[in-house]
Amino acid sequence: MSYTSIDPITTAWAARHGLHVQTRYRDDEVRSVDVVGHSGRRCQIWIDPPDQAGKVGVHIWDFKSKKLDKLVCQDDLSACLDDVYTTALGWVT
């Protein structure tokens, strides 16, 4: 599947929070955001392309032991991204 249908959502979400969405990792297409706190701690939020049912996987981890996975419909993606961003901010402070 392709990210085309969710790119407007992820782009708008990132712009609201002053984040940069990475779209390539090595030779793979991805949608990933690093959240870095003043302490230097960081988290990664990454988004799977929609599956055939229109569900999108949203993941966050702290590069150590904390991890959270969510599966949402595209209509709920923006709210989910806001939620995981809030979680990330809590993890990096």
Task: Provide an overview of this structure.
This protein has one domain. The N and C termini lie far apart (35 Å). Strands 1-2-3-4-5 form a 5-stranded antiparallel sheet, with helices on one face. The mean pLDDT is 96. It has 93 residues and is an alpha+beta fold. The chain is built from 2 helices and 5 strands, in the order αβββββα. Strand 3 and strand 4 form a beta hairpin.
How many β-strand stretches?
Answer: 5
- Residue share in helices? 25-40%
Strand content: 35-45%
> Uncertain regions: pLDDT < 50 for 5+ in a row?
none
Task: Give a nutshell description of this structure.
With 93 residues, this protein is α+β, with helices and mostly antiparallel strands.
Strand and helix map with partners:
Blueprint: H1 7-17, E1 22-25, E2 28-36, E3 42-47, E4 55-61, E5 67-73, H2 77-92
Spell out the key features of this protein.
single chain; 2 helices; 93 residues
